[in-house]
Design brief:
The complex is a heterodimer of chains A (86) and B (258). Chain A has 86 residues and is mainly alpha-helical. Chain A contains 2 helices and no strands. In chain A, 5% of the residues are buried. Chain B is mainly α and 258 residues long. Among the domains of chain B are: 81 residues, Methane Monooxygenase Hydroxylase, Chain G, domain 1; 78 residues, Membrane-bound Lytic Murein Transglycosylase D, Chain A. Classes of the chains: A mainly alpha (86), B mainly alpha (258).
Chain lengths: 86, 258
């Protein structure tokens, strides 16, 4: 019983090895090409993330300057009016 | 036999594991599929990055434009009030000085405030000078300047209320024996005749010569406190004039009858 079970096991393993051994596989250069591509994608994702942060910071800075500019214009009008009364 | 069986079993197991490992290796089709997927992803990301870069460049330009507009507005504002950074700093320092002086006076007791009442006028002068500057119309200083005037007014009110509480109406020499020396000596006034210069200096507008006070004059009685430098100096001056006139060193004379 044990013998037949072991034989079956060995046969299956051999079959699996043969089946995979017959299919074509990428060579080392192709595998490197894939790895490089993956690295490039990761790098691009990081760059995009950084650019999005930069964009958000710029939008905040512009909004802040807009508010300051509006306040400055308001101040100018107020000062002009007060100077008339001086 | 048993040993042989075990060896076969272990060998079979190893073969199975090896074949499994080989089966896990990437096939050419899988490689091709991944290359296609990652290439598409890379191209998409490159496009996205290019788009983002364009947006960021536009935003940078916009930010620079806004900064320039803000700078121009600030310069226009400063030109309106005829000031530059240095004069603004000087103005702010002057306001700080006024604040410091007001704070100092506000902490004084009524008596001490009375003794240093001249300083209220000094701070008012400083304030009036600062207020002449067009910089005082700028919103960041306007409220502060207004508040300073309110605080100076409050100091004056404190002084006035202290003054109103203490007055003395001069009576006649015949009946009341009123002279500055005797008034100061009264228990309800200072209970100390040597304090007479305080009454004199507190009523400089009414008393030109401390030897002459008139019936019916309403004198302010400064709060009781040690003689100030000015009061002591006034006394020295009074006595030296007296000596110069070779007059006897007597206390101030009685009031003149009308």
């Amino acid at each position: 019983m044990k013998k037949s079970f072991a034989g079956l096991f060995v046969a299956g393993a051999l079959l699996a090895t043969l089946a995979t051994g017959c299919t074509s596989k990428p060579n080392a250069a192709e595998l490197k090409q894939l790895e490089d591509l993956k690295a490039e994608v990761s790098s691009l994702q990081r760059e995009i993330s950084a650019k999005e942060s930069e964009k958000a910071a710029l939008l905040r800075a512009i909004a802040d300057k807009d508010a300051q500019l509006a306040q400055c214009e308001k101040d100018k009008a107020l000062v002009q009016e007060r100077l008339k009364g001086m | 036999m048993k040993v042989m069986n075990r060896v076969i079993l272990v060998a079979a197991l190893m073969l199975y594991v090896c074949s499994y490992a080989v089966a896990q290796e990437m096939t050419k089709e899988e490689w091709q599929k991944q290359i296609t997927e990652f290439t598409a992803q890379r191209n998409e990301l490159k496009n996205k990055l290019t788009g983002l870069q364009t947006e960021v460049d536009k935003l940078k330009k916009s930010d620079a434009d806004k900064a320039a507009a803000l700078k121009k507005c600030t310069e226009d504002l400063m030109a309106l009030v005829g000031a530059d950074a240095a004069s603004e700093r000087a103005f702010a320092a002057k306001l700080d000085e006024i604040d410091g002086k007001i704070n100092e006076l506000s902490r004084l007791s009524n008596q001490d405030l009375w003794a240093r009442k001249g300083e209220i006028d000094d701070v008012q002068k400083m304030f009036d000078e600062a207020k002449k500057s067009k910089l005082s119309t700028m919103p960041k200083y306007f409220d502060r300047v207004k508040e300073q005037q309110n605080r100076i007014d409050a100091l004056r009110k404190t002084l006035e209320s202290a003054q109103l509480m203490m007055t003395y109406t001069v009576g006649t020499w015949a009946k009341d024996r009123d002279c500055l020396w005797n008034i100061a000596k009264k228990p309800k006034i200072y209970d100390n005749a040597f304090m007479w210069p305080k009454i004199w200096q507190g009523n400089k507008d009414k008393i030109k010569n401390p030897d002459v006070i008139k019936k019916g004059q309403v004198l302010s009685i400064p709060p009781k406190a040690d003689l100030t430098k000015e009061e002591k100096s006034a006394v020295r001056s009074y006595w030296s004039k007296k000596r110069a006139a070779e007059a006897p060193a007597t206390p101030p004379a009685a009031p003149v009858k009308k």
